[in-house]
Structure formats: structure tokens, C-alpha cells
Design a protein that fits this description.
- By secondary structure, the protein is an all-beta fold.
- The protein folds into five domains: 115 residues, no CATH class; 80 residues, Sandwich (Immunoglobulin-like); 68 residues, Immunoglobulins (Immunoglobulin-like, Sandwich); 86 residues, Immunoglobulins (Immunoglobulin-like), CATH 2.60.40; 135 residues, Sandwich (Immunoglobulin-like).
- The protein has two helices and 45 strands.
- The protein is rod-shaped.
Length: 509
């Protein structure tokens, strides 16, 4: 019932009662300055029963009425029942199954009264949705209220001709565990509040903290050393709380970019895995601003440098130095961005430098240019044998290894062969008496234990296949190699004997 113009909406002459018993829809609406209900004399009773009872002490157009002054409903979904006595001026509450006072429900101030329960159904919602949807009466206004970060949020929308409504969430989502209160209104007809909870379906997030360690270092076992800025949509709610678990860390025994893995999970058991770059560096690596550049100094034969252009030399430097680069934060190999910033490499044997650059990080290396050859690197000028007692028998004298040092350097290609030969140019002769000579005293015993007497003809005593340009020692096991065998009966006491051996180094097929 709605009235325009002037005068009361309902005028009782003497007494009179108003009974409304669980209607589908009941409305008294007076938009004039007069009372909605008045009595000429006497008093009457109101017996009001319905799912929701709404009371306004003001009136206006339907789209400007706002919330009722008071709204009554029950949590157990049963009907509200209010009984009162009024004479149009004063009101007495006789009975009620909801909290209500005569000051609240003052019939003399009543402008609008609606009773019923407007159909309203809200769809379930989670924190991954950016709209709230549901169904109500066609054209009904829908109001949404919730509290987030101690701020009360109010949203509104309108149902379409089929009663469907869709309301956008301003920040793209509502935090999980939030209680959302929804009401629908149409022409002073207001639904009972519908309350839904927002489900937590979104996993937490965190930012990886790249790790940089030296080869062999021990990595932390605390997961919070690997992840920072841990956030979850439930932060600031009853469901906040994220746990980090370290599920894998790499070994640090070898150089390179590796990975650790940390799992983050919230109270709803939503889980995300954070991949953490772990860079293991060595002494040839420079790390700055999450950029790692590794290059090592190297040796190169002059034939590999000869005739090359600057561009070809730059490529040679990158290849021979084993240059590699990484964006540690991104966990990416960016070796193809390495540039040779400068170099002074020439075809002439000598030592040179080159500087490599990667995203502002530089590394300077040395380059040794050499000629291919095989040569003695070091030969001790004097080599001693251990002393022996005169027994009248043949004795084999072992080398005094501290005085024996022969090394060979082969800068030729890998797989080249060489052989060292020994020739006796002077037999063992007494220093005190040149006539005292030990003939055939120098011998060579091979690895099979076979003995050869050394003389003036060069005899092969050591051979080797080249692996790299590092010095190779010419040595033997203690009872093998060049030794002295002498009949001590021919040796004069208190005399020192000295001989000469000529060493020759040759290519071997």
C-alpha cells in the first residue's frame, strides 16, 4: 500500500488492530508529511509476523530510501514476531522474539513498514574471484558490506531482468576468511542479510634470495635465508600464517649455476614452490650486481694466433679462456653477451692480457703465447748416488733422489711422444787417482727388471706421451732406472768417484 498526496495512509476511528501474518510481501509506504498510521481515539494492537521486519521513520523515492532505521530478523531463520499496543502517539511493546524497544518501533514516527523476506542467494566466493555473483528479485538493488584492513567497504549493484547480479571487487579480490554481508532491496522490500565467507584458494608468494658461495662452502639450512617478502592474501585475517620449508639444496663441490627449492604453504594448505638460484663460484669468477663472469688465463701456441683478424682473436680469447656468464637472479646463462673489451695479443711469443666484459662486470686474464717445442726444462748439474760399504761383493748403489732432477716440457699438441736417452761419456773415475776407474758401472734397469749396461751409445731410459704443456719429471721407481753397479773389491777406500752422463731428448714416433 502506497500513498501520495496528503493525509494519513491508515486512519483508525476508534481503536483498530493491524495483523500481518507471514506475508510474501507487505508494504506500508507514505511519502507525505502526514503520519502513516493514526488513531482518532482509543488504541489498538499490531501483531506483526514475518521473515524480516523493516522500519523507517523517513520516506522518499525507492532509489533514495537507504537502509531502514531498524531491521529485525532472527539468526535461526525463523520468523520475527512483534506485538505492540499504540494509540498513534505512544507505543508499548507487548511481546517480541527479537530485541526491540518502543523508542525504536515508534508508530507515531513510522513512515514505511515492510514485512517479508526478499529472495536472495549469493554464490560461493573465493579469493581468486574479482566479482561477487548471485540471484534475487528482478531489478532489486544489492548491497555488499565487509571489513578489510579495519576499513569498512560498501559495494552495490542491481539485478538484471532475470534476477542475476554481478558486482565487481574494487581491488580484484576479497581477502579469504572475510565475512561478506549481502542484502537486496526493491521498493522498500529488504531481504534478510545473507552472509558468506571467502574461501582461501590462492597460494602464498615469496621472492627468491639468490645465493652466491665459493666451491665447497656449506649452504644454510634455514628456508627463510632463501626467500623474502613472503605474502599471502590471508595476511591481516584470522587465517594468516605462511610456513616455509627447504626441500632441496644443491652440492657446492663444482662450479656453476644451480638451484635450491623452498615450499611455501598457508593454513589452507595452498602451496607454491620458490626456485632459488645458487651460484657456486671459484677463484676465476667475478660477481657483481647478481652478474657472474668467469674466465681463466691460458697458454696458446703462436700458430693459433698467426694470421687471425681482431674479430677472430676475440673469439679465440673467449673460447680458450672458457668464458661463461650468468644472471644469477634470473637463473640464466648469458654467456653469449660476453664481449672482449680490450686485448694486446700478438703473434710473437710472450705474455699478454685481455679484458672481458659482461653487463658492466669485467675480468682481466693473461695469455701466454709460445712456440711449439719439446725441451729439457731442468737438469741437475750434479747427481749423486748413495755410498756403499766395501764388502768385496757386487753392490747396486741407489740414487740420492734429492739431487736428481730432470724435467721435460713439451708444448706440442696432445699425443706427441718423446724419449730421453743416456750415454756414458766418462766412466766412474776416482777424483783422487785418475787411474782408478770402475768400468761398466752405470746400468739401467727397466720396469721389467731387465738390466742394460750403459756405454757411450745413447740408450733410451724414459719415454712419454704428451698430455699438456706442464713439466714432466724424468724419474723411476727406487730400484729401477739409472743405477750404479760396482764390484766393491775394485773400489779404493776413502776415494770419491765421478763420471759423466750425456742426456739427449728426441721426438719419438
Amino acid at each position: 500500500m502506497k500513498k501520495g498526496g496528503s493525509g494519513q495512509l491508515i486512519q483508525f476511528g476508534s481503536g483498530g488492530n493491524l495483523v500481518v501474518d507471514d506475508p510474501a510481501y507487505f508494504l506500508l509506504y507514505n511519502d507525505t508529511a502526514s503520519k502513516t498510521i493514526s488513531y482518532s481515539s482509543g488504541s489498538g494492537t499490531f501483531n506483526l509476523v514475518g521473515g524480516v521486519i523493516n522500519y523507517w521513520n523517513k520516506a522518499g523515492q525507492a532509489d533514495t530510501i537507504g537502509n531502514p532505521t531498524h531491521s529485525y530478523s532472527r539468526d535461526d531463520e525463523t520468523n520475527v514476531a512483534i506485538g505492540l499496543t499504540t494509540n498513534g502517539t505512544t507505543t508499548t511493546i507487548d511481546s517480541s522474539n527479537v530485541p526491540v524497544s518502543k523508542e525504536e518501533f515508534n508508530v507515531s514516527q513510522l513512515k514505511v513498514l515492510s514485512i517479508g523476506n526478499l529472495f536472495l542467494e549469493a554464490d560461493s566466493m573465493n579469493d581468486n574471484q574479482n566479482v561477487l555473483t548471485g540471484q534475487t528479485a528482478r531489478g532489486a538493488s544489492v548491497q555488499v558490506n565487509y571489513v578489510e584492513n579495519e576499513e569498512e567497504i560498501q559495494l552495490s549493484g542491481t539485478a538484471d531482468d532475470n534476477g542475476n547480479f554481478e558486482i565487481k571487487i574494487p581491488k580484484g579480490f576479497i581477502k579469504p576468511y572475510t565475512k561478506v554481508v549481502i542484502t537486496a532491496t526493491t521498493d522498500y522490500y529488504i531481504s534478510k542479510m545473507t552472509i558468506i565467507g571467502v574461501e582461501d584458494v590462492s597460494p602464498p608468494a615469496g621472492t627468491a634470495i639468490p645465493q652466491v658461495v665459493d666451491i665447497g662452502d656449506t649452504l644454510s639450512t634455514d628456508p627463510y635465508d632463501y626467500v623474502q617478502d613472503i605474502k599471502d592474501k590471508s595476511d591481516g585475517t584470522l587465517g594468516e600464517g605462511v610456513t616455509a620449508t627447504l626441500i632441496q639444496i644443491p652440492n657446492t663441490d663444482t662450479f656453476g649455476l644451480k638451484k635450491a627449492f623452498v615450499t611455501l604453504h598457508d593454513l589452507a594448505l595452498n602451496e607454491t614452490q620458490v626456485e632459488v638460484p645458487v651460484f657456486v663460484k671459484d677463484s676465476d669468477t667475478v660477481v657483481q650486481k647478481n652478474i657472474a663472469l668467469r674466465a681463466n688465463s691460458f697458454i696458446v701456441n703462436e700458430t693459433e694466433v698467426n694470421g687471425k683478424s681482431n674479430l677472430e682473436l676475440e673469439q679465440l680469447i673467449k673460447e680458450k679462456s672458457g668464458a661463461v656468464g650468468y644472471d644469477i637472479f634470473a637463473g640464466a646463462d648469458i654467456s653469449d653477451e660476453i664481449e672482449v673489451e680490450s686485448f694486446d695479443l700478438k703473434e710473437v711469443p710472450g705474455e699478454y692480457t685481455a679484458t672481458l666484459e659482461l653487463r658492466g662486470v669485467t675480468k682481466t686474464i693473461t695469455i701466454e703465447v709460445f712456440s711449439r717445442s719439446v725441451k729439457f726444462d731442468e737438469v741437475s748439474p750434479n747427481m749423486d748416488f748413495k755410498t756403499a760399504q766395501i764388502t768385496g761383493e757386487k753392490e747396486i748403489l741407489k740414487r740420492d733422489e734429492k739431487t736428481w732432477k730432470i724435467t721435460v716440457v713439451d708444448t706440442r699438441e696432445k699425443g706427441a711422444n718423446w724419449v730421453v736417452s743416456a750415454a756414458v761419456t766418462k766412466p766412474l773415475t776416482s777424483i783422487q787417482n785418475q787411474n782408478h776407474i770402475l768400468k761398466n758401472a752405470f746400468i739401467f734397469i727397466n720396469e721389467k727388471g731387465e738390466k742394460v749396461i750403459l756405454d757411450e751409445t745413447p740408450y733410451p731410459v724414459f719415454q712419454h706421451e704428451t698430455i699438456n704443456a706442464e713439466p714432466v719429471p724424468v724419474d723411476w721407481e727406487e730400484n729401477r732406472g739409472i743405477l750404479v753397479e760396482a764390484n766393491t773389491a775394485s773400489v779404493y777406500a776413502d776415494e770419491d768417484y765421478q763420471g759423466k752422463i750425456a742426456w739427449t731428448l728426441q721426438d719419438a714416433p
